[in-house]
Amino acid sequence: MAKIVYSMLTSLDGYIARSDEDIALPVPETELHQHFNDMMRRASVVLAGRRMYETMRFWDSPDRETGATEVERDFARAWRETPKIVLSTTLRQVGPNARLVNGDAETAVRSLKSETDGLVILGGADLAAGLARAGLIDEYRLYMHPVVLGGGKPYFQSGLSLTLKPLGTESLPQDVTLMRYAPANQAA
Q1: Can you supply a Gene Ontology BP term from the record (predicted)?
Q2: Most buried residue, 32, 61, 94, 120, by CB count within 10 Å?
């Protein structure tokens, strides 16, 4: 059975971006980027909504093979090699190594979870909120940058109520703190 992990960079005040067009968080430098590369390589599947998928399509570009640093080229390879499931009612097609699901997200993710082994990386606050309400997220990973955005797109959607238990913290490069949590009602 898959383990679904909602994982995003966030500001100290809980925002993953200032807006859809302005992420406003520091860009991961080599050592922090390598952490994300390693996580992508461990993933069985990436699960994303439309906006997150469209943002990440940047890594599909052949330019990522020549015009980037080695750590960025490595991430681009890992991204392209990892299967993606995109949950969207507005997209009509997706790119390489991706499958579009435009039906009921909860049903699709329940099926994915039971039919897949390993780590499933979930990105995108809107999709995560619906899956959290359905009890489908196994772990929350907040990568806290020491910056305050003052508003924007929150990691946890407004109105979402969860009781979580801490799984641990880790200090990472660029003064980022990884905070890990699981639903409190989840068996250990």
Answers
A1: riboflavin biosynthetic process
A2: 120
Is residue 188 in a domain?
Answer: no
CA 91 to CA 88: how far, in whole Å?
6
Q: What is the pLDDT of residue 129?
A: 95
Q: What angle do CA 118, 31, 48 make, to 5 degrees?
A: 40
In this predicted structure, what is the pLDDT of residue 60?
81
Domain carrying residue 159: 2-183
Q: Which two tokens stand for residue 62?
A: 């052949």
Taking the C-alpha atoms of residue 118 and residue 29, their distance in angstroms, rounded to an integer, is 27
CATH at residue 103: 3.40.430.10
Total-model pTM? 0.93
Let me know: does 20 contact 51? Beta carbons within 8 Å: yes
